Amino acid sequence: MSGKDPKANKPLDPATLAARGLGWIEPGAHGIVPPIHLATTFERAADQSLPGGRSYIRAQAPAYDQPEALLKALEGGAGALLFSSGMAAATAAFLALAPGDHALAPEEGYWGLKQWLIDFGQRQGLAVDFVDMTDLAKVQAAVKPRTRLIWAETPANPTWSIADIAGLAAIAHKAGARLAIDSTAATPVHTRPLALGADLVMHSATKYLNGHSDVLCGALIAGKADDYWQRITDLRAQAGAVPGPFEAWLLLRGMRTLYVRVRQSSASAKAIAERFAGDPRVAVVLYPGLASHPGHDIAARQMQGGFGSMLSFRVAGGRNAALRMAARVKLWTRATSLGGVESLIEHRASVEGPHSKVPQDLLRLSVGIEETGDLIADLDQALD
Fold it and tell me: 362 near 351, Cβ under 8 Å?
């Protein structure tokens, strides 16, 4: 099946492409669900050629074909690669830089990547500076002659700050650098960074793309299949940072409900944010869909159909009040991660440890697909 409506000869909506998994039919039994390809090696002909075009699973697993093709279509990219985790995908973008290259990374964003850049990347000679990605003037001032990568996350963990993708792309390209966007929280449902000028998109596919809290996986999607992309491709194969066939199969299954899940959870997140904004028990509700959020105007410009399913409460009364609220929820689950069908809540500073810069009164909420009213009622009773 192509990406066009055969009757109208027009491109299909991305939600349709996702729901149908591009409409691929398994050629053997004509199944509408692909089989799980478990083979790790593939037969050579007598002349040593490869009739199936594959030699070994590490770089050429048949299980990757359909989910990678779907990701490429949803993001409008030239290529897509699955990785064993979001961290494996993110670090590959930095490891593919040349010796002496300089990168900019966000002050606010996923703490695991920031710790890797500090503990491993910089120790191995990677030149990285951290900057406020919401301030284009600061980003421009931080650019150096050898800057080759600007990495931004938007919306960014855990205050959901918004980076101007088009503005960052202009700075990066003027400097001869590439712009990579961690779009895990936005998903292709709400933002397509490549269309806004980014060169690379990363997803922790463990989160919304899979959506069921049962797969560890990551993905990169490139705007151009250039030399840098080839280095990333080679790095994945040589380092073995690949998911298993079953994980790839589960990821594809999850992506088929991506648009339904994300639209539902985003609508609930907006309702929750509006309900508790101004509630005296909550000092601040951090959600890009609120006009009070510092990044709202940019988010309204570059996010389509919603503002995502992540928000944070800064609870009035400080750390103890936040911990008390988290302890009292009954429907929300106290757990790390995000993007699943179940709603999660966590005291982020406790998770990150004593060196965390996250405010002690902050609770991070990942909104699932439960009934909105039930989610609101549980938060309301937990705040009393």
Answer: no
Which among 192, 207, 261, 314 is annotated as catalytic? 207
Closest CA to 327 of 350, 356, 355: 350
Separation CA 326–CA 324 (nearest Å) = 5
CA–CA dist 163, 67 (Å, integer) = 28
Same domain, 250 and 379: no
Active-site residue 56, yes or no? Answer: no
**Is 275 a residue of the active site?**
no
CA distance 25 to 327: 48
Annotated catalytic residue, options 54, 58, 146, 275: 58
Q: Answer yes or no: are the C-beta atoms of 79 and 225 closer than 8 Å.
A: yes
Q: How many CA atoms lie within 13 Å of 118's alpha carbon, on the beta-carbon side?
A: 9
Residues 224 and 280 in one domain: no
Catalytic (active site) residue 164: no
| 201 C-beta neighbours (distance < 10 Å), count | 29
The answer to whether position 202 is within a domain reads yes
- Residue 277 has a CB neighbour count (10 Å cut-off) of 17
- The pLDDT tens digits for 225-263 are 999 999 999 999 999 999 999 999 999 999 999 999 999
User: Within a domain: residue 310?
Assistant: yes
Q: Which of 182, 199, 361, 378 is catalytic?
A: 182
The active-site residue, picked from 64, 110, 208, 228, is 110
263-287 residue pLDDT tens: 999 999 999 999 999 999 999 999 9
Same domain (yes/no): 209, 304: no
- Is 259 one of the catalytic residues? no
Identify whether residues 373 and 343 lie together within a single domain: yes
What domain range includes position 325?
258-383
Q: Report the C-alpha gap between 222 and 238 in whole angstroms.
A: 19
pTM above 0.85, yes or no: yes
Number of domains in the chain: 2
Tokens (6 digits) for 150: 């600007």
Dump pLDDT digits (tens) for 216-232.
Answer: 999 999 999 999 999 99
